[in-house]
Amino acid sequence: MSLSDGSTISQYLTFSLGEETFALGINKVREILEMEKHVKIPKMPEFIKGIINLRGSAVPIVDLRQKLEMGETKKSINACIM
Which residues of the chain have pLDDT under 70? Predict the structure, then answer.
């Protein structure tokens, strides 16, 4: 977003994992979904919890805490970043 003086404003989606705060530019975020029932896939890395069917496409569910080696998420709140 540009301002009248030529400067720009950047927007970010922020989220916390434990004590850490992370940010993604909103241009990298397609949508935020509520957690759905997912299908587990055998022989996948531990941080991939399964997949969901999103409008006909298989979308992986990733436990970011586990992927970033911060321990496993205790709550059933996960996000998919596409």
Answer: 1-3, 6, 74-82
